[in-house]
Amino acid sequence: MISDWRLFWIAIAYAATGFIVAASAQDQASIEAGEALYDEHCAMCHGEKLRTSGAVPDLRELRADQRGTFVTTVNEGKGQMPAWGGVLSDEQIGQLWSYIQAHAR
After folding, report:
1. How many whole angstroms separate alpha carbon 77 and alpha carbon 81?
2. Percent of residues in the chain assigned helix, strand, coil, to nearest 5
3. Distances (CA, A) of 66 to 11, 12, 33, 78, 88
4. What DSSP character marks residue 55?
5. Measured CA distances, 44 to 2, 9, 20, 36, 57 (Å)
């Protein structure tokens, strides 16, 4: 007979696994949305499939701790890069970040 504690931990493990699968599906949807946004708004300068020509920063080199800088740069622009604030929503910028981080080096 299985103890109550063992059943408890089995239930926790099962619930956590379901959460991880749901989170992964949500993450994948965000990455795919980010890819579409990238293709539409960013690829012309930053390169198709995140492959830069070297004339602009390689977005794949952005570290996870640089999200704030990324968001500010996208919203406000920098150098020849136009500001996308007001064009892209916070959610869309987050989706772009998901796409870029999914391909980070």
Report:
1. 5
2. 70, 5, 25
3. 37, 34, 20, 15, 19
4. S
5. 60, 51, 35, 13, 13
Tokens of 40: 């539409």
What the chain holds in terms of domains, given with CATH numbers, is: 32-102 (1.10.760.10)
How confident is the model over 17-67, as pLDDT tens digits?
A: 654 554 476 688 999 999 999 999 999 999 999 998 888 889 999 999 999
CA 87 to chain centre: 18
User: Which tops the pLDDT comparison, 54 or 100?
Assistant: 100
Report which of 100, 95, 105, 101 is spatially closest to residue 37, judged by C-alpha positions: 95
